[in-house]
Task: structure prediction
Amino acid sequence: MDFITLLGANGISDGIGKLIYEILYKWIDGWSSNWGIIGAFSVTVIMFTLFLKALVFPLDVWQKMLTRKNAKIMEQMKPELEKANKQCGANKELQMQKQRAIYKKYKYSAFSSCLPMILTLVVFFIVFGGFNNAVARHNLNMYQTMEEVYDTSYQQVFDKYIEEGVLEEKINKEFNITEYEVVSGDKTREEIKAEAISSAEKAVLEAHEPESFLLTKNIFVSDSWKSVIPDAASFVRSARGNDLDVDAGKYETVMRPLTEKYKGQWNGYLLLPIIAFVINILSMRLNKMPEQPIMAGQSEEQIKAQQSQAKIMQYMMPVLMLVFALFYSAAFTLYMIINSLITTLFNLIFNMVTKRKDAIEKDRIMSTTVK
Result:
């Protein structure tokens, strides 16, 4: 992989997907042969989230420090900005000049106040792409394994009847395919074929080892009303997205016993999406968003509209997380839950420490003033 590709969005997603599935998952999967209701990939998601949070911890601290610094500057500037707005009245040009002068005086950057949110979203979508890639890798891996099991078991039935002298193998030169002709016994070719299909389907059912998590039957599918086994259209679309050519008809044939087994069953009971939504609501309430900067030239009506939009966006984030949880893999929802829990805990500790620090600083100033 060249350097340019590595820097590209697809290159990063592929790299993270490979890290999650080909390296971390295969390492963790070797820890045990029986994972029960907590699958190896669930542990992989938790471990990956912890590793990632440790890696970006300095960035989290910097974001909180930057947000805190900007909030303090905004608090100091606010009286002057409001005074400037009142003094300038309808003179927008003068108002903009005064606001810029105040920003310069306090060394305030409107972009830096938005930077933490931008970086958080960038990390979110990069990881999202990585999980999608890991899910596609697993689905392809699982199908290829099931296809091999199906074909092997199917062929073994014909090989058995060839050894017994019931069938004779012939090559159709016109189409370059292998055909079988019944030469003895009372079984027809159709009966032998039906036996081979039955044997192959039974082998697929026995070989399939679903990766579950609690009540979610397949962690690689969303914890919702989705089918436990991806349908042919979804699988083929995912495979083509990874530059792979898969025959939809063969997929349906191989996976039919599994789709029949789980027919009419939901993959989950919306447990993970509800948890993700609740945690994001709690996080929103526990961590007050920083006040939005007043942009140069804004009227009071525009400022109020901006504050209203910020409130709406605050409530939109939990809804957005719920949408991702409902329509993408339960693995990614588990990542969002663990990530949100760690972030909320970090924010609470950070806020407690800074609140205590502010109280000490306030007492120091008060004691100095009194003296």
